[in-house]
Backbone:
């Protein structure tokens, strides 16, 4: 954890212009940027915070769009929605090769962009492009910070590059990865988890039983929340079929995000157990609050949100799992925060185990030891970095 006593003595610089860099691949990067912008504003930091969608800046170089007619971030989101992630371990190096191939052009495009904007501090919430971001800023000695929105790096050249910059990490494992690449402790900061939206910290004053009734669910039946990010995933249909017809005392809330086709298919599904099907919603904290456990992919955002809301998680880890998310599944398993399956075909057995005896409560007890305040800790760290004279 960052030295809170030292940070508490740091006075935020007035008039600081801070650029938060994100893109829309997966949605978690934008969500983290918006969360930071919101907290910085509500906590009274006298800063000018600007959001930068790097995809838009680099659009002239998007070789993937030139080849396919689709932006890189949109290709990524399509793969997630369709579940076409088999072989992603090999696709990532290919993508990184293309990024390296166009590195010089990226730097040349970014350098005048920054010179026109003249930021005092640039914070990246994205992987793969941090070398280009740093080199485009270096001539003007603008401090550069990378906030890992994954629980760990996936080296080489994913989050942590060997260049003189700052890092903010949500796990001790990520901190040790930064140290292993030669970064000194003065440039590596630990926070207590992933950045969550401020809404997750607001008290939820509702009657859980009544909220379940509103969804036409039973107020006392164990309830699982099924969520695969803002783009949804076709695997949710097979999950609904399996658990919806399982001989278990169980019901489901399925949130499809922007995937209207999936929502329509689920709404037409006839099941033994009750299911509630929802589209995109900003009320994720509420639906987690009225649920008992979480089923989804081992993404850093959704897993962190579920654990913050004290929900044990059920995820899978296999060849379809994105390589940068495989550590997350191991982390869940090693800490006893949920169940990790080789595939969701065994989901009914896993849920049966979770609901038997006191397994659910034991996991909730371990989860209760977590206290994620990262979204409030990061601005204090940025204030400290902005007050330094060395870059």
Residues:
């Amino acid at each position: 954890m960052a030295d809170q006593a030292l940070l508490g003595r740091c006075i935020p610089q007035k008039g600081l212009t801070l650029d938060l860099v994100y893109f829309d691949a997966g949605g978690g990067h934008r969500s983290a940027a918006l969360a930071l912008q919101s907290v910085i504003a509500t906590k009274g930091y006298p800063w000018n915070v600007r959001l930068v969608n790097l995809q838009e800046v680099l659009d002239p170089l998007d070789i993937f769009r030139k080849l396919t007619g689709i932006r890189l971030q949109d290709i990524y989101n399509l793969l997630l929605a369709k579940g076409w992630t088999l072989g992603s371990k090999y696709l990532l190096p290919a993508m990184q090769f293309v990024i390296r191939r166009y590195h010089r052009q990226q730097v040349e495009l970014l350098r005048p962009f920054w010179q026109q904007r003249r930021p005092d501090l640039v914070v990246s919430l994205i992987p793969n492009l941090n070398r280009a971001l740093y080199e485009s800023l270096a001539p003007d000695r603008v401090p550069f910070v990378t906030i890992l929105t994954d629980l760990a790096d996936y080296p080489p050249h994913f989050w942590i590059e060997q260049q003189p910059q700052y890092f903010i990490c949500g796990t001790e494992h990520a901190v040790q990865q930064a140290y292993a690449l030669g970064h000194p402790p003065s440039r590596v900061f630990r926070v207590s988890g992933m950045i969550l939206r401020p809404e997750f910290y607001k008290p939820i004053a509702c009657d859980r039983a009544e909220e379940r009734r509103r969804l036409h669910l039973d107020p006392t039946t164990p309830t699982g929340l099924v969520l695969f990010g803002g783009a949804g995933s076709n695997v949710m249909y097979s999950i609904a079929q399996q658990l919806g017809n399982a001989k278990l005392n169980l019901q489901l809330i399925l949130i499809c995000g922007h995937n209207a086709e999936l929502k329509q298919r689920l709404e037409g599904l006839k099941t033994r157990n009750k299911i509630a099907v929802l589209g995109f919603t900003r009320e994720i904290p509420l639906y987690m609050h009225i649920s008992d456990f979480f089923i989804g992919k081992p993404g850093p955002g959704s897993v962190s949100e579920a654990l913050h809301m004290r929900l044990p998680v059920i995820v899978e880890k296999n060849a379809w799992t994105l390589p940068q998310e495989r550590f997350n599944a191991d982390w869940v398993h090693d800490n006893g925060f949920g169940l990790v399956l080789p595939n969701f075909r065994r989901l009914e057995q896993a849920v049966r185990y979770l609901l038997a005896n006191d397994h659910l409560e034991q996991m909730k007890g371990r989860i209760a030891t977590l206290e994620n305040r990262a979204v409030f800790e990061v601005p204090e760290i940025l204030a400290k970095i902005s007050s330094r004279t060395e870059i």
